[in-house]
Design goal:
This protein is α+β, with helices and mostly antiparallel strands and 244 residues long. It has helices at 2-14, 43-46, 49-65, 70-74, 86-97, 140-153, 165-177, 184-202, 217-228; strands spanning 21-28, 32-40, 102-110, 115-122, 127-134, 208-209, 212-216, 233-241. The strands form three sheets. A three-stranded antiparallel beta sheet has the order 1-2-3. A three-stranded antiparallel beta sheet has the order 4-5-8. A two-stranded antiparallel ribbon has the order 6-7. Helix 1 (2-14) crosses helix 5 (86-97) and helix 7 crosses helix 8.
């Protein structure tokens, strides 16, 4: 009890200090994926094996319990000490490392049937991407390659019809302002071409695939589908970055 009270007092004192460093941990089961961003004050603490074990332990608890929010997660009993809440467990690590440690974000992704999920962690766990590939449960390696593409190319949308019309219109206005002394029908064609090029750049399925830049992501998915003789479809992608 004394140690817990001491941890709470230490945590309160340090909560005003900025915690800019962090990692994004995850844990996976057959039914769900938990993603948790935890921050500290220095990269030295973030890279510490004990700190990373602390994050992994909490991710495993989250994927098992599936809390509806970060607030709900904080008041749950921890899987280290049943009479210690998750937040009290955090406070004990504040005392241990002498730094402000905060939970920034928690997401629980419920898996859909007949889907493969690729998870890619990069930059020392400072970047995490996930791709859902519908049509097979046996294509996790390919889904991970696609998640690696998301990490490298940072798409904003899945496909062109998801790009908001006001953004397309804005890109069209920029393109139109750059065209001089052309007939209206030619201007329209150029503007539409510029909008398409913009969508190809920001949409996952239209981007050049990082492992074979002669093909788009969609073309590669279609090739794999043909080889497997079953249709595969990229349904969603997620991208988390520390501090974002």
């Amino acid at each position: 009890m004394y140690l817990r009270k001491a941890g709470e007092a230490t945590a309160v004192k340090k909560e005003s200090r900025e915690a800019k460093e962090g990692i994004i941990g995850f844990a996976e089961t057959e039914s769900a994926i938990a993603v948790l961003e935890v921050s500290a004050e220095t990269d030295f603490v973030v890279k510490n094996d004990d700190f990373q074990h602390f994050v992994k332990t909490l991710c495993e608890l989250a994927v098992k319990q599936k809390p509806k929010s970060l607030e709900e997660f904080l008041v749950m009993g921890s899987n280290v000490d049943p009479v210690m809440t998750v937040d009290q467990y955090r406070q004990s690590y504040v005392q241990k490392f002498g730094e402000n440690i905060q939970f920034k974000k928690l997401d629980i992704l419920m898996k859909e049937p007949q889907s493969s999920y690729g998870i890619y962690s990069h930059l020392g766990s400072k970047l995490l991407t996930i791709v859902q590939l519908r049509g097979s449960t046996a294509e996790k390696p390919f889904a991970k390659d696609l998640a690696m593409h998301v990490a490298a190319e940072d798409p904003d949308y899945l496909k062109a019809d998801e790009v908001p019309e006001d953004i397309k219109q804005h890109e069209g206005e920029i393109a139109k302002a750059q065209i001089k002394n052309k007939p209206d029908n030619i201007i329209d064609k150029i503007v539409q071409g510029k909008i398409k090029a913009f969508c190809d750049q920001v949409c996952f399925l239209s981007q050049s695939y990082i492992k074979d830049t002669s093909k788009t992501v969609q073309e590669v998915v279609d090739e794999v589908s043909k080889r497997l003789t079953r249709p595969l479809e990229v349904v969603k992608f997620w991208r988390w970055k520390v501090g974002k």
